[in-house]
Sequence to fold (255 residues):
Amino acid sequence: MSLVGKVVIVTGASSGIGAATAEAFAKEGAKVVLIGRNEANLKATEAACKAVNNKAKLLLIAADVTVDAERIINTTIDHFGQLDVLVNNAGIFEIGNILDVDVDQYDRIFNTNVRSVFLLTKFAAPHLISSKGNIVNVSSVSSLRSNRGMSTYCSAKAALDQLTRCIALDLAPQNVRVNSVNPGVIVTGIHRSLGSSPAELDEFYVRSKEMHPLGRVGEPKEVAHAIIFLASDSTRFITGASMPIDGGRHAFSSF
Ligand code: NDP
Fold:
């Protein structure tokens, strides 16, 4: 599919990978629906989209994906009349050993990173069938590799990969494709949300380089480019795939 004029929802467009993805779709001439809770950050992404394409058609919806899935899809259809691509990117990251974490963390992580994707997909599916559109989920290399202290996040992302494959099978007869990208460590706000000091964060990124065979961490736009690729017509025979965007980290087992 050429992305010109296509209607694309990007959840978590107010920061990091989602912001870079919204900008990349706007540059391609898509009509982009920006979803996030932080309105000031959504406006910053809107400005970035306009900077790369001053004719970009954008719709900002301040919304929480855990409670507003139906409103997000209905508002998009009311405004643009169609939906071609759903990018389920919004996500949160928390850590903790099983001896310390409580079930609230499990519920938060699964509600945001899995349940909201299920709901958005369910409400979007009839419209994607009409447009023969597609879905790109933002999973993680953490679905493929296990980490100490990350049971809730790793298992939620593994569930997201299965959701990707199962829904790809459900919707294949209607020619709707469903894929995921699985990033390694990408420099965004998500690691700051753990409350680390700037020095600790720097140290984390330095250490992370060693886990990625290409010897560095990634940038949001490198994930955005892969999302554009999977959403476009050039990959119209790809569905149910999970594509690592991780400098080879998924292939590396001894760190
Ligand atoms: P950021 O923290 O920079 O961005 C997260 C985005 O998700 C924000 O726009 C935030 O918006 C949004 N979001 C979170 N919860 C909700 C909610 N309940 N409702 C609506 N929006 C929400 O992180 P990244 O860009 O790094 O993360 C994007 C995705 O990439 C996530 O799914 C993450 O798991 C995945 N990922 C990231 C990696 C990395 O190293 N950065 C590695 C692998 C995967 P707001 O606060 O405005 O609501």
